[in-house]
Amino acid sequence: MDCWTRALGRLREELGEHTYRSWFQAIHVERLDKGEGVLSLPTRFLRNWVVTHYADRLLAAWQAENREVRRLSIVVEPRAAASPIAQLAPAAPPAPIELADDRSQISAPLDPRFTFANFVVGKPNELANAAARRVAEACAAPAHSVPFNPLFLYGGVGLGKTHLMHAIAWHVRTHAPTRKVIYLSAEKFMFQFIRALRFRSTMDFKEQFRSVDLLMIDDVQFISGKDSTQEEFFHTFNALVDQNRQIVISADKSPSDLEGMEERMRSRLGWGLVADLHPTTYELRLGILHAKAEASGARVPDKVLEFLAHKITSNVRELEGALNRITAHTQLIGRETTLESAQELLHDLLRANERHVTIDEIQKKVAEHFNIKMAEMISARRARVVARPRQVAMYLAKQLTPRSLPEIGRKFGGRDHTTVMHACRRIEELSAQDRALGEDVELLRRMLLS
Ligand code: ADP
Ligand code: MG
Fold first, then answer.
1. Which residues have CB under 6 Å of ligand 1?
2. Quick one: which atom of ligand 1 is closest to the CA of 113?
3. What are the pLDDT digits (tens) for 328-340?
4. Model pTM?
């Protein structure tokens, strides 16, 4: 038995069978040259992993058997059938029915309400919706194709990313039940990966992804910063893309803005189609409320729905929460909820949506943000550089304070209430079309409310 084999035997005892099989079995000794031991592994992923986690131990174990070894380097050397772990398997033949059950092992459960039929489409989400449908249809078609890889969905909290991903999964499950679909939050992905490292071989983990047709990972911003998981994710991702399997990713930011994510990963994520979900508009909120109220079977007066769509602008989840309270109330007392009782029922939510911000504060923050003088908020100047920020401030004043349109007008240098109304409409429209402005407005809103 040579020194290397004995060294491996030591490691096997020290680290356990699983770790050994996952990471060391595929190692080859390339040469031992002037004190430098050169080892190879078949993939970059394996190589990097072993270098970061086990280089010291490898060296120590080898040295203990052979004093000549003073340094260690590990290179990537792909070789045929070198390793049971090598890459993910090549494109598998159509999966047998039983395989469909495999998904329960790893895929998270799907929410039965999150279907395309229940997704209300408006300007802010039409691109994301169209892209998601396209992917779902392509994936369910007999000649499975991959329209864009990956589909990257992003947007703020509660705007429908998870809903769309589940909708894709439902569509594929209903129309092509033999296709293997995995939907997983990034957190879960991380958790499973770490658990696999600890308790089982990482092979099992990789096995899970072997024959997947569609892999969806939700909220990848949670992978940022976690180096090893990122690495594994990157590896899985590349292997699947190479095999032409569809991938759908969601995050709260665009690929280029994902902090703590390696550059190569960010650029890779942006290769396919990047579709963002904009903050909701009044029309979309009202549309969603109508749809949900109808589905719940409770009759809620239009006035109340309009009131909610105006007041609860943060995200759809809160909007749903508000409506649920109202429908529960309606069912409980057996008659329609009035505007007054709605206000009462939701007073805490409404307060959170307008946390005692004053118009002065809004003007100050907005002026600072756009780098204009506070005096321009009340001046008569109409140049766009000052007029647009002024409109933003009016819009935020309407959204975040209980002041009426004439009151707001007065605070802005004695303007007419129709000017304020126009400003509100304009900003709402613009923030749906112009992402930079939409983000500015959202940022200001958050700063003011925090
Ligand atoms: P995200 O994942 O972007 O944070 P979710 O997909 O979880 O948001 O959506 C939050 C809630 O709002 C869910 O209950 C979802 O069904 C609902 N929702 C969001 N957008 C829409 C929409 N356009 N139509 C219907 N429901 C929606
Ligand atoms: Mg989500």
1. 114, 118-120, 125, 155, 157-163, 288, 316-317, 320
2. 16
3. 888 888 888 899 8
4. 0.61
